[in-house]
């Protein structure tokens, strides 16, 4: 019987023969920095997209939420998910435009445009090689290595700043800042929708304090408090894998 390793290696070998996979590998070889950056942001956005769909679907089908309130909770999840994806993409591509000028400004003492730093470095290297008794490298050889070093440093800087902007600044700072007031607007619209469905006839004797009660006997304020309670209850445990834990089954 064939081992798991040999079977999996044959499968992976066959997959690498597909033209799309070969083109992807060629792209990684041609420009590894850009390929890694794009594939990383694609995986992050893809994960958030799947998570958004799962949360919205969970809210729409959660029996613990009253049917008339499921749409509101799902709208909050959808709003947050869409904002998350758009903000991450926006900051990622925005940082790609700003990275090199920012790098040149921050590291001008190491990689300046006028080349004075390179002259100093080249002179020092050639002097050290001569003092040590090694063959002295030509300036063009040193310059080539210097440019490669600069490119490696710039690629690393771009990768870190782009991913930090997308996953930290966009996801943890900008999106919550925007989503909170936006969620309030959605909530207000849902409240108006609920109010429009209330019975037109109200018992004046039982509502002397101008409280508007629906057919459940709850006031508008009580409806809103109940809605907040449901939202807090749902989002206090948003782990989509919790259903596995209830049955003692590990999803991993």
Q: Number of DSSP strands?
A: 0
The major beta sheet can be summarized as: none
Q: How large a portion of the residues is in β-strands, by DSSP E?
A: under 5%
**Termini gap:** 27 Å
- In DSSP terms (H or I, runs of 4 or more residues), the helix count works out at 8
Please give the radius of gyration in angstroms. Answer: 30 Å
Order of helices and strands: HHHHHHHH
Which characteristics define this entry?
disordered C terminus, 252 residues, elongated
Give an account of the 3D structure.
The chain is mainly alpha-helical. Helix content is 75%, strand content 0%. The protein has eight helices and no strands. Helix 4 (67-106) packs antiparallel against helix 6. The protein is elongated and about 90 Å long.
Brief summary:
The chain has eight helices and no strands. The chain has 252 residues and is mainly alpha-helical. It is elongated.
Topology record:
Elements: H1 4-15, H2 19-30, H3 32-60, H4 67-106, H5 116-132, H6 139-196, H7 220-235, H8 242-246
